[in-house]
């Protein structure tokens, strides 16, 4: 599910360049969220008044989802949610999202994926290398999500963290516990294998165990009970695909014969639906983005089409979908269609792509092209996980 690279940034000059340049941080971007017209904007207080009037309260943006099992819902996810392509990073091609994780949550995203590296003894959200793009510390990221969850008590959030430097569950756990977000952590009945029936959202909300955390490639540690090894519960389709060639075939974990075999065994399906360019340096495919994220079900390569295709192939809708630039589409519309809901309580975010001219300020990030031009990147044509 990671950004598929065909290069490795590896030179002392790159390191010194990046140290000299401000790091695009999780907290440093300017306010660029376009809130829709006041009629379309639904504030939290409006929502709770409406809920009181009808006797129903929305769970994950719909009362219809409250009594549905967690694994019988499509949770729309932001791939590489901490890697921003906005004015804070000079609209870097290494960014995968135009808006940050808390804006994403307010817009209806319920799965946040991030790549975690160890940098000077600190877990940080870096894109392949902390010299390339550093999205801030895991602690900062989790604190922001906890603050959002504190303010939104009827929402269930899922995290998917990639353990890029093979750290232990305890190393992650100490950050989860020190930020306090671990108090929201849900621990399923089985912690070492798939769970066929997950609780309903309402059950998770009532227990206030509203955070489901998967970490790719960790060994479970009962001292941090809610940190779950991803591939014991979730299977994924391939990532790093090129438009419009998405498919619903299982890619990971290995050892399961097919997507349907995985579904039968109780695994939850995750669809990686983001396209990279097929050029020397593989970066997110911006050209086809409007179609890639489109809810249309009659168009090749669209999210709507793949959502339907996987649902049909698996005889079950995807539990998770990851996209780049979640606001374009908007991607969440496909989840709403699969879930059969009309969402309430979201903050509207512009569906436009952000560019240097649409954004405010001069960028200060480092792009692949600039690094290449400066001769500080060695192209070695490998895929870095
Ligand atoms: C995310 O972006 C919004 C809008 O720019 C900003 O108000 C908010 O503080 C940011 N959140 C975090 C956690 O940085
Ligand atoms: C899943 O949710 C759908 C509603 O979208 C419902 O019809 C179906 O019975 C649910 N499946 C299970 C196994 O609960
Ligand atoms: C971490 O937090 C969880 C949830 O609050 C708790 O169950 C666990 O015991 C804590 N772990 C440690 C080592 O303190
Ligand atoms: C699905 O896509 C992956 C990645 O592009 C590819 O390796 C695989 O062969 C495809 N599978 C099918 C059945 O098309
Ligand atoms: C797809 O469907 C939409 C309506 O949902 C329609 O406007 C559009 O023309 C259709 N496109 C194709 C290629 O059939």
Automatic annotation (TrEMBL):
Membrane-crossing residue ranges in chain numbering: 365-384
InterPro entries: PI-PLC_domain, PLC-like_Pdiesterase_TIM-brl
A GO term for molecular function: phosphoric diester hydrolase activity
Gene Ontology biological-process entries: lipid metabolic process
Pfam families: PI-PLC_X (PF26146)
Top-level lineage group: Eukaryota
Signal peptide positions on this chain: 1-20
Family annotation (Gene3D superfamilies): Phosphatidylinositol (PI) phosphodiesterase
UniProt keyword list: Membrane, Signal, Transmembrane, Transmembrane helix
Region ranges (Disordered): 286-308
PANTHER family per record: PLC-LIKE PHOSPHODIESTERASE, PTHR13593
The protein's name in its UniProt record: PI-PLC X domain-containing protein
């Amino acid at each position: 599910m990671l950004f598929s690279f065909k290069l490795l940034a590896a030179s002392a000059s790159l390191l010194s360049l990046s140290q000299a340049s401000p790091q695009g941080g999780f907290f440093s971007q300017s306010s660029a969220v376009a809130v829709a017209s006041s009629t379309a904007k639904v504030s939290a207080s409006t929502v709770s008044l409406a809920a009181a009037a009808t006797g129903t309260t929305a769970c994950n943006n719909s009362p219809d989802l409250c009594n549905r099992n967690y694994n019988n819902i499509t949770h729309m996810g932001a791939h590489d949610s901490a890697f921003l392509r906005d004015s804070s990073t000079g609209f870097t091609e290494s960014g995968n999202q135009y808006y940050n994780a808390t804006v994403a949550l307010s817009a209806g995203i319920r799965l946040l994926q991030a790549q975690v590296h160890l940098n000077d003894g600190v877990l940080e959200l870096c894109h392949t290398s902390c010299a390339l793009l550093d999205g801030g510390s895991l602690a900062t990221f989790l604190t922001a999500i906890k603050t959002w969850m504190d303010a939104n008590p009827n929402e269930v959030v899922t995290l998917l963290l990639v353990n890029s430097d093979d750290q232990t569950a305890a190393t992650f756990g100490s950050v989860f516990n020190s930020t306090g977000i671990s108090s929201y952590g849900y621990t399923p009945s089985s912690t070492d294998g798939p769970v066929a029936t997950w609780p309903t959202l309402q059950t998770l909300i009532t227990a206030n165990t509203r955070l489901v955390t998967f970490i790719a490639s960790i060994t479970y540690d009962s001292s941090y009970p809610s940190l779950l090894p991803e591939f014991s519960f979730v299977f994924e389709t391939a990532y790093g695909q090129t438009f419009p060639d998405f498919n619903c075939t299982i890619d990971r974990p290995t050892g399961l014969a097919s997507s349907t075999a995985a579904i039968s065994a109780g695994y939850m399906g995750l669809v990686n639906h983001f396209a990279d360019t097929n050029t020397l340096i593989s970066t997110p495919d911006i050209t086809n983005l409007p179609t890639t994220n489109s809810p249309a079900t009659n168009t090749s390569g669209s999210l709507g089409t793949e959502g339907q295709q996987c649902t049909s192939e698996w005889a079950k809708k995807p539990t998770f979908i990851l996209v780049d630039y979640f606001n374009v589409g908007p991607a969440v519309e496909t989840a709403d269609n699969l879930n059969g809901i009309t969402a309430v309580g979201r903050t509207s975010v512009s569906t436009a792509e952000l560019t240097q001219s649409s954004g405010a300020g001069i960028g200060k990030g480092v792009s692949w092209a600039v690094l290449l031009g400066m001769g500080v990147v060695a192209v070695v044509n490998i895929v870095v996980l």
